[in-house]
Amino acid sequence: MSLFSKENGAVFTGPLNLNNPIAVQVLGICSALAVTSQLKPAIVMGLSVTVITAFSNVIISLIRKTIPNRIRIIVQLVVVAALVTIVSNILKAYVYDVSVQLSVYVGLIITNCILMGRLEAFALQNGPWESFLDGIANGLGYAIILVIVGFVRELLGSGSLFGLQVIPSSALMENGGLYLNNGMMTMPAMALIILACVIWAHRSINKEK
Amino acid sequence: MAKYLCKVCGKTYEAATKPEKCPICGADASLSEEVKEENAIEAAPKKKGLNTNGNTYTIIYASVMVIIVAFLLAFVASALKPTQDANVVNDVKGQILTSLNIESTDVAADFDKYVKDMLIKDGELVDYDGEFQTSYSSELKAGNLHLFVATLDDGSTKYVVPMVGRGLWGGLWGYVALDEDFQTVYGTYFSHESETAGLGARIAEREFQKSFIGKKLFADDPSTVVLTVTKSGKAEGETQVDGITGATLTSNGVADMVTTGLQQYADAFKPAAHVVEAEPAYSEEIPSVEEYENIENINEVTE
User: Fold this and answer.
1) To probe the interface with B, which of A78, A124, A182 has the most B CB atoms within 10 Å?
2) Which parts of chain B fold into alpha helices (H)?
3) Per-domain residue ranges for chain A?
4) What is B2-43's CATH topology?
């Protein structure tokens, strides 16, 4: 089987749209609430999950035939936790600024159910290369939703994008304008509502499939 | 249909009743045994020789995995520790410089140029000659307080007070730079372990930190620090700073940290300006030798 065969193409595009981990499988909701009040942490979190899902998928896929069935979840957890710890240590040593910004998010990756879900459902049955593609695609599928939610929340909640003010401060009510930032958007509960809207839109577009 | 596992060839086959011979390898069916449904999945991937579901294998596998991972993590952690520590020291120095409103590109050099690490020991300011500490607890145990004394380009002296506190989810820490009179805030820096992004985490933004500049520590009573953080939009006068909307508990944490932290230093350390105010109280008559021996009492009186 070639590296970019049709099957592998389906493995890659599935999670981006029709089998999206958040919109369709409804995995990883908790972290989607926590990190989406601003766009930047949402993007960083999305990328970190992508990298870690891909590599833990590869490792589990390589050792899948040796894993005892009864402790497979523990083995998966150990691999993910070890990987996350190593990555966080490397970040701390070489890109300290980024690791300070990420703070708790790196640790949160371990508890992200997308990782365990993909290891259990895909990497245990498939080869390393397919698993790698699956990990990348699922991570990106997760990142897309995070970015959408983060975009809406930061724009409407604080009137900025990437921390840069988009809505001119003269338009704000406190400066005599007519516009008011929606403080509700900065609350985690609003992430659920936006997420539900995204899922709704996604499902009504793909209704026939 | 029942499932049977042939012990000779290791394969499973299905049959309504137990046949005489295994249909796959032809061995006597007395060597086959019926498998229950839940075992069927486990039996299927069984490899020749290696039983990955046995207890021994599982225990050995788990032990080996744990040992490998432990060594790997220990190796990574110890190999990267010096670099990480250097980063942390640099970061702390950068935070102190930030509280002095210095935007620095070469933190280590600028820190050495402007800032001096000193201790308040028994009310006196003495040089601290140990290695740079990123937490101040070791000297605090001995009853001494770290104080950073900065001499800026214009020759003015600033005092930087380190402080720690508790936010909503985890620790807070910060540095408050004061003018020489130990009364006016020159600049601040705050950070946090794990406050909510977009809410409590905004205490780490310069906009919030700069709102402290020019505020006063003391109101009428020069011994009680009243500088504090209020609810957003409720700050009045020179001793109150607006909190952050939606992050009341983090704002309260900052308020506690600033007030108690500065109070601790105000009690322990009377810089030049305060001593001048307080001086007449005990300089009216020159104390005799006996009174010098009771010098602590003088401090009590003046306080």
Assistant:
1) A78
2) 37-43, 55-99, 107-114, 137-141, 206-210, 248-268, 272-278, 280-283, 289-293, 295-302
3) 28-205
4) Rubrerythrin, domain 2 (2.20.28)
